[in-house]
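re: the backbone from monday

yeah here it is again, tokenized this time
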């Protein structure tokens, strides 16, 4: 789980979940009104 909120100018909380043990590299991104919501969405 990574927080990528600081990579934009708007400031919407964005989180990224990486699953390296899957058959292929799988990445999910989620946005929300708080960091907790973004993490749950990812």
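seq for it, each position gets an aa:
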């Amino acid at each position: 789980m990574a927080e990528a909120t600081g990579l934009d100018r708007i400031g919407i909380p964005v989180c990224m979940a990486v699953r390296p043990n899957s058959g292929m590299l799988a990445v999910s991104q989620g946005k929300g009104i708080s960091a907790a919501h973004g993490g749950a969405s990812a």
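The mean pLDDT is 88. Residues 35-41 form the longest helix (7 residues).
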